[in-house]
Design brief:
There is one protein chain. This protein is α/β, with parallel strands linked by helices. Among the domains are: 49 residues, no CATH class; 192 residues, Rossmann fold. Helix 18 links the parallel strand 4 and strand 5. Helix 5 packs antiparallel against helix 6 and helix 6 runs antiparallel to helix 7. The longest helix is centred in the N-terminal third of the chain and has 14 residues. The termini are far apart.
C-alpha cells in the first residue's frame, strides 16, 4: 500500500491548528498571518485566523476573516458555522440562523451546526424548531452531552417536564460529572440542593447578557434596581453619600447606574464575564471584578459601607456562608440590602424555575447573628406569565 506523503502546506496548517487547539492563540494567529502572505488564496488560513481573533475578543476582525474565507470558498461549511457563532455573539440571531442553514445545506451531517442552530432558535423563541435541531444533532452524534442538556432546557421551556428530565438524565448517563443537568433534575423533581453549580450560574448569565436588560426590564417588568436609590436615601435623609459601595451580582449594571451618584467608590462583582463586559460599557463602576461573590469577598481585605444584592440569593439556597462573608467585609454600621423570593414554609426550596425561594423566618434566623434588621418590604419581583412573583427586600445593619 502506498501512503501519499503530506504536502508541506498541509503540515504547516496542521501546526497552526495544533497551536490553536493548545490555546496558544497569539502564536497560531501570527503563524497563520505569515502563511497568508505566501498562500493568500487558502480559505482555511482565514478561517483559522477568524477563530483566533474570536478567541481574543476581536469579533469585528473575526467576522472579516470568516467572510474572506467564504469569498475564496463559498461552500466552506466550517466558515459559515464559525461566522454564525460570531454573529450570534453580536445578537444578530436571524443572520446567524441563515449562516447555520447554509453550513447544513453544504454538510447535512454537521452535528455542531445542528446544535448551534438549536441554541439560536431557542433564543429566538422558536422552540419546536429548536427541538428538531437538537434531535438532529443527537441522531448524528448520540453522545453529544450538550445537545441532550440543551434539548432538556427547551423541553422544559415548552412545559414538557418529564421529557426534559429524560434528556437531562441522558446527558448525565454520558457524562456523570456534568453538574448542570443534575441541577435541573433536582429542580424539576423537588430535590432541594444547598446551591447550584457555579458552572450553571455562569453559563446562564453569559448566555443571557446581550438580551438581559430588554428581557428583564421590558418583558418581566423587573424594577428593583430603579427603586433602590430612593429606598436607601429614605433610611437616613441627611446622608446622601456612601464612601465604599459594593454591588454583588452586578449583572449588566442596572443597579450600578442608580448607585453611582450616592457612591464615592463603587465596586461590582459578577460571576459572568459577559455580564461584567456589559457593565463595563456603562462606565459607572470604579472597579469591576469577575468571579464568585463568596470567593472574592473571602479573599478581600477591603471593607465597605453599603452592600447591595438584588436578585442574587435566588441563585443560592443555603445563605449562611455568604451572609458571614459579607459581615467580615463590613465597616462599622455598614448596611446590607438584599432581595429574596419568598415562600411560606420555613427554610428554602429549589423551585422548578431552578431558582431558590426562602422564608422570612429562615432569613431572620441566620442573619440575626451578624446583622440587625432595619426594615423589610414586600415587593413584586418580576412577571411570570400573567402573575407577579412575590419577594421581599431586607435592609440590615452590621451589628
Amino acid at each position: 500500500m502506498t501512503i501519499k506523503p503530506q504536502s508541506p502546506l498541509q503540515a504547516l496548517i496542521d501546526s497552526v491548528i495544533k497551536l490553536y487547539s493548545n490555546d496558544q492563540i497569539q502564536e497560531a494567529l501570527d503563524t497563520a498571518g505569515a502563511l497568508i502572505k505566501d498562500y493568500p488564496n487558502e480559505a482555511i488560513l482565514y478561517n483559522i485566523s477568524g477563530a483566533c481573533y474570536a478567541s481574543l475578543g476581536q469579533m469585528d476582525t473575526a467576522v472579516n476573516r470568516y467572510e474572506k474565507a467564504l469569498d475564496i470558498e463559498p461552500d466552506y461549511a466550517d466558515a459559515h458555522n464559525n461566522l454564525a457563532i460570531t454573529l450570534q455573539g453580536f445578537d444578530q440571531l436571524d443572520a446567524a440562523v441563515e449562516r447555520y442553514k447554509k453550513a447544513l445545506a453544504i454538510k447535512p451531517d454537521y452535528a455542531e451546526a445542528h446544535y448551534n442552530l438549536g441554541d439560536t432558535l431557542h433564543k429566538l423563541g422558536q422552540l419546536d424548531a429548536s427541538v428538531r435541531s437538537y434531535e438532529k444533532a443527537i441522531a448524528i452524534k448520540p453522545d453529544y452531552t450538550e445537545a441532550h442538556n440543551n434539548l432538556g432546557n427547551t423541553l422544559k421551556r415548552l412545559g414538557q417536564l418529564d421529557a426534559a428530565v429524560r434528556s437531562y438524565k441522558k446527558a448525565l448517563a454520558i457524562k456523570p460529572d456534568y453538574v448542570v443537568p443534575q441541577h435541573m433534575i433536582n429542580a424539576l423533581t423537588g430535590n432541594t440542593s444547598t446551591k447550584p453549580p457555579k458552572e450553571y450560574v455562569k453559563n446562564l448569565f453569559d448566555d443571557y447578557a446581550e438580551r438581559f436588560d430588554d428581557s428583564l426590564v421590558k418583558q418581566l417588568q423587573y424594577k428593583l434596581p430603579f427603586l433602590i436609590k430612593e429606598l436607601i436615601l429614605k433610611l437616613d435623609p441627611p446622608r446622601n453619600k456612601f464612601e465604599r459601595v459594593i454591588d454583588l451580582g452586578c449583572g449588566t449594571g442596572l443597579t450600578g447606574k442608580e448607585l453611582r451618584d450616592i457612591s464615592n467608590n463603587l465596586t461590582g462583582i459578577d460571576i459572568s464575564s459577559n455580564m461584567v463586559n456589559k457593565a463595563r460599557e456603562l462606565d459607572v463602576y470604579d472597579c469591576l471584578i469577575e468571579g464568585d461573590v463568596v470567593d472574592i469577598l473571602s479573599s478581600s481585605k477591603e471593607k465597605y459601607d453599603l452592600f447591595i444584592a438584588l436578585d442574587v440569593f435566588v441563585y443560592i439556597g443555603e445563605l449562611t456562608k455568604i451572609i458571614k462573608t459579607v459581615r467580615q467585609c463590613c465597616n462599622k454600621n455598614a448596611l446590607f440590602i438584599f432581595s429574596i423570593e419568598t415562600q411560606e414554609e420555613d427554610g428554602y426550596s429549589l423551585l422548578k424555575s431552578a431558582r431558590y425561594s426562602h422564608s422570612e423566618d429562615y432569613i431572620l434566623k441566620i442573619a440575626s447573628v451578624a446583622f440587625k434588621v432595619i426594615d423589610s418590604q414586600e415587593v413584586n419581583l418580576r412577571k411570570q406569565k400573567e402573575s407577579w412573583i412575590k419577594g421581599k427586600i431586607f435592609i440590615m445593619q452590621a451589628s
